[in-house]
């Protein structure tokens, strides 16, 4: 069944039908409501389901609201509510002593820098308190001391127990003990000049069969063929005596010499 035209209300046949704005029109009836200019699907504009040309298309205009007493009252009431909320928020944050600051990238960078500075200062204070009043000066001797004294120190500590008290030549080392360790720091031993003593009589005589270089201040160096006088046995591995060629007195290894 053919529909009726929206303007002339006559039957619209398919050859002259225009389907637009949810209605059916004759091609001749599809014109502007104001100037009656015939329109098509490309140049029409619809307003309230009626066709208009571009020149007579109705423009929307905003209506102004008059400042009636009712509108003035509503406006004043809104302003009062806004002030009340502002005062409530102000009273809540009044005693807290801070203001809200936007978390900008610049503030984030400053905060990160302050955290890094704080961590550096904390680690510095921690290192100072851990090292104690001596600072970093006592760390290096403490590291070297176990390697240097792990082999010699027990023998030096045993020295006063094995040296005969009757031999006057060995009283000086007894009065001047070897280096002592205080918290990892090794106190310097007595000078070599104090340890040296003139050869006395009545001691055993040994001859060196190998060259030996002193590894510590309380030891003596000698060469192959040197004569060692006033020799006293300290333990199975070490002796105490005087090199006749140099006059130096101190400890020497027992397996480097032989009895004469």
From TrEMBL:
<dbReference type="InterPro" id="IPR001452">
    <property type="entry name" value="SH3_domain"/>
</dbReference>
<keyword id="KW-0007">Acetylation</keyword>
<dbReference type="Pfam" id="PF00412">
    <property type="entry name" value="LIM"/>
</dbReference>
<feature type="compositionally biased region" description="Basic and acidic residues">
    <location>
        <begin position="140"/>
        <end position="155"/>
    </location>
</feature>
<keyword id="KW-0206">Cytoskeleton</keyword>
<dbReference type="InterPro" id="IPR051759">
    <property type="entry name" value="LIM-SH3_domain_protein"/>
</dbReference>
<dbReference type="GO" id="GO:0005938">
    <property type="term" value="C:cell cortex"/>
</dbReference>
<dbReference type="GO" id="GO:0005925">
    <property type="term" value="C:focal adhesion"/>
</dbReference>
<keyword id="KW-0009">Actin-binding</keyword>
<keyword id="KW-0813">Transport</keyword>
<keyword id="KW-0479">Metal-binding</keyword>
<dbReference type="InterPro" id="IPR035630">
    <property type="entry name" value="Lasp1_SH3"/>
</dbReference>
<keyword id="KW-0440">LIM domain</keyword>
<dbReference type="GO" id="GO:0046872">
    <property type="term" value="F:metal ion binding"/>
</dbReference>
<keyword id="KW-0677">Repeat</keyword>
<dbReference type="Pfam" id="PF14604">
    <property type="entry name" value="SH3_9"/>
</dbReference>
<dbReference type="InterPro" id="IPR036028">
    <property type="entry name" value="SH3-like_dom_sf"/>
</dbReference>
<comment type="function">
    <text>Plays an important role in the regulation of dynamic actin-based, cytoskeletal activities. Agonist-dependent changes in LASP1 phosphorylation may also serve to regulate actin-associated ion transport activities, not only in the parietal cell but also in certain other F-actin-rich secretory epithelial cell types.</text>
</comment>
<keyword id="KW-0728">SH3 domain</keyword>
<dbReference type="InterPro" id="IPR000900">
    <property type="entry name" value="Nebulin_repeat"/>
</dbReference>
<dbReference type="GO" id="GO:0051015">
    <property type="term" value="F:actin filament binding"/>
</dbReference>
<feature type="region of interest" description="Disordered">
    <location>
        <begin position="123"/>
        <end position="163"/>
    </location>
</feature>
<keyword id="KW-0862">Zinc</keyword>
<keyword id="KW-0488">Methylation</keyword>
<dbReference type="GO" id="GO:0005856">
    <property type="term" value="C:cytoskeleton"/>
</dbReference>
<dbReference type="GO" id="GO:0006811">
    <property type="term" value="P:monoatomic ion transport"/>
</dbReference>
<feature type="domain" description="LIM zinc-binding">
    <location>
        <begin position="3"/>
        <end position="63"/>
    </location>
</feature>
<protein>
    <recommendedName>
        <fullName>LIM and SH3 domain protein 1</fullName>
    </recommendedName>
</protein>
<keyword id="KW-0963">Cytoplasm</keyword>
<dbReference type="InterPro" id="IPR001781">
    <property type="entry name" value="Znf_LIM"/>
</dbReference>
<keyword id="KW-0597">Phosphoprotein</keyword>
<feature type="domain" description="SH3">
    <location>
        <begin position="201"/>
        <end position="260"/>
    </location>
</feature>
<keyword id="KW-0406">Ion transport</keyword>
<dbReference type="Pfam" id="PF00880">
    <property type="entry name" value="Nebulin"/>
</dbReference>
